[in-house]
Specification:
This protein is mainly α and about 250 residues long. Helix 2 packs across helix 3, helix 3 packs across helix 4 and helix 3 crosses helix 9.
């Protein structure tokens, strides 16, 4: 196929997509109106499956396949970062030097660390009941660990952050989501169908597979963010100019 033909195909596809997008926008409910067909159906489905947080019901039940795609984007980003920023054989790795920390910063960070960690775990655990969930809680958990870097130094962070284990946890979170989706196939249902008992409404065990998928996301996001920050924080590149050959200096 020639370059000109490819451009025509691209133009036709883009034009068709634009027409469908405009038609879809024209069929949307009016802003501020009382008719919300998607929202009403989403709320009804969430309540029917004993999930108090409608957003989590949409993310991990009604559109769980979309969430798998979002999770896979983060997983792919972490994997690419690990491959690109890995230490090669000819790299010289020197331990970072400790830097003095202001006493006020040290006290605040050490006090905030356990509180932030607890909040992050709470947000993950209650994702099916209240605003939040695995994505938000996972980021908070990963952030709490790095408060030790602010309070003490980088070596203190390294002691509680074995990167290899977090890489395994990142993969386990991604695999856990996939395995829960595949388990639905064993019951004769579709992939990622909510096949578990829905439990008692507004309790931690409610929602069927929603809390489990939410927990898998929490593990994957927390571990993934830790690995990403670890790879970037480990990079300290110094470029040195090679000395010019004295014999060729001044020659054309």
């Amino acid at each position: 196929m020639s370059t000109r033909m490819r451009l025509w195909v691209l133009l036709a596809g883009g034009l068709g997509t634009a027409v469908l997008y405009l038609l879809a926008c024209r069929a949307l409910p009016a802003f501020g109106g009382a008719w919300h067909p998607y929202g009403d159906r989403a709320v009804d489905a969430a309540l029917a499956r004993h999930t108090a947080n409608t957003v989590s019901s949409v993310n991990f039940d009604q559109r769980a396949l979309d969430t798998l795609g979002e999770e896979s984007i983060l997983f792919g980003s972490v994997l690419g970062t690990v491959v690109l920023l890995r230490q090669t054989r000819d790299e010289d790795r020197r331990p970072p030097r400790p830097v003095p920390v202001a006493p006020q910063v040290r006290r605040y960070a050490l006090l905030a660390l356990p509180v932030t960690l607890l909040i992050g775990l709470y947000v993950v655990a209650h994702g099916q009941l209240s605003p939040g969930g695995g994505f938000q809680g996972g980021v908070v958990v990963a952030t709490s660990l790095h408060l030790l870097y602010i309070a003490v130094d980088y070596r203190a962070l390294e002691r509680i952050r074995p990167v290899g284990r977090y890489e395994v946890a990142d993969a386990a979170g991604e695999a856990g989501y996939l395995l829960l989706g595949a388990a639905a196939l064993l019951t004769g249902a579709a992939f990622l169908t909510n096949f578990l008992p829905w439990g008692t409404f507004n309790t931690l065990a409610s929602g069927g597979t929603v809390p489990l998928l939410n927990a898998a996301i929490g593990v994957e996001v927390a571990a993934g963010v830790v690995v990403l920050l670890a790879r970037f924080l480990d990079q300290a590149v110094e470029i040195e100019e090679e000395p010019r050959d004295a014999g060729t200096e001044g020659t054309a």
